[in-house]
Amino acid sequence: MAVFFLFVDGVGLGDDAPENPFCRSSYPGFNAMGGGQPFVRHAEAITSQNHLFKGIDATLGVEGLPQSGTGQAALFTGVNTAREVGRHFGPFPHSKIKPFLKHESLFNKAMGMGRRCTFMNAYPDIFFERSKKRNRWSCTTLMTKSAGIRLYTEEDLKKERAITAEITQQAWRDNLKIDVPAITPAKAGQRMLDAGRDHDLILYEYYLTDKAGHAQNHSQADEVISRFDQFLQYLVKNRGLGDTLVLSSDHGNVEDLSTKTHTLNDVPLFIKGPGATAFQKVDSIQGVTPAILEILQEE
User: Fold this and answer.
1) Strand pairing of 201-206 and 51-56?
2) What one-character-per-residue DSSP string does 93-118 give?
3) Cis ω on the peptide bond leading into residue 181 (within 30° of 0)?
4) Alpha carbon separation from 203 to 32, 130, 175, 279 (Å, rounded)
5) From edge to edge, which strands make up the β-sheet containing 267-272?
């Protein structure tokens, strides 16, 4: 049994309106989260034994638009990091919240329970060079490094045990000129499921949805949502019966392309699998990590 955690950056539950790409095109994976309902704010919550879907708060009771640094830190630690800082902050973690990511993250706590954890994203050499030079790490990479988990590299990608940020490896081929084959979202999905053989908690981060929201570009949004949608569909259909799939976000953005900023919308919480009941009382992004840990404790 394994927990597969999909972190999808910048995805909220918006209005049924033309500026919402989830209403302009059909995305079967996203619609399946709500049992076939449109992926919008008025979708009815689902709280069955093996399937949960609802909107949860990303503002954390702090004024202003949610940001990635404090939002992701809250999602991955269970701490109201926006309140700790006194405001929303991002995109990188604020100095006041780095200690939470270093010592109180989901990975730290899961490993303290004896669970095996991995972060599926692979990074090219240039990422490591720039991050080390600036000593600037994202929430996910900082918590991974701090938990003693190795960040995956080009070599791991070639050995088919990691996934690129855009899923298909095409960007590494086109933009970085790295000799890796293009793959389908389904193959990337199987690669993630394969990681469940040796790990209890598997995390994957997809940030291109947030980038598309800031660009206010409908065609770009459709492309990155469609790609992730295929990846999501494969995971939902092919996960083991004892596995739990968790999906959430740090703040809204791409669901409202009328603005280039983040939004105040609730973000989705989708659970498929036997761990769904652990999330029934979760009402904000702060509650996601504690619920995942509850599942891991019970296994």
Assistant:
1) unpaired
2) PPTTTHHHHHHSSHHHHHHHTT--EE
3) no
4) 21, 23, 25, 17
5) 46-47, 51-56, 267-272, 244-248, 3-8, 201-206, 117-119
Residue 42, helix vs strand vs coil = coil
Residues 6 or more apart from 187 whose CB is under 8 A from it? none
Half-sphere exposure of 233 (CA within 13 A, CB side): 17
> Phi/psi of residue 125, each to 5°?
-55, -40
Question: Could you tell me if 122 and 195 are in contact, meaning their C-beta atoms sit under 8 angstroms apart?
Answer: no
pTM exceeds cut of 0.85: yes
Q: How far apart are CA 4 and CA 239, in angstroms?
A: 9
User: What single-letter amino acid sits at 288?
Assistant: V
Residues 47/33, Cβ–Cβ less than 8 Å:
no
- pLDDT by residue, tens only, the chain of 299 residues: 899 999 999 999 999 999 999 999 999 999 999 999 999 999 999 999 999 999 999 999 999 999 999 999 999 999 999 999 999 999 999 999 999 999 999 999 999 999 999 999 999 999 999 998 888 999 999 999 999 999 999 999 999 999 999 999 999 999 999 999 999 999 999 999 999 999 999 999 999 999 999 999 999 999 999 999 999 999 999 999 999 999 999 999 999 999 999 999 999 999 999 999 999 999 999 999 999 999 999 86
According to DSSP, the residues that pair with 269 across neighbouring strands are 54
Burial 92-106 (b: 16+ CB within 10 A, else e): bbbeebbebbbebbb
Take residue 43 and report the two structure tokens written for it.
Answer: 């979708």
Q: Which two tokens stand for residue 143?
A: 């918590």
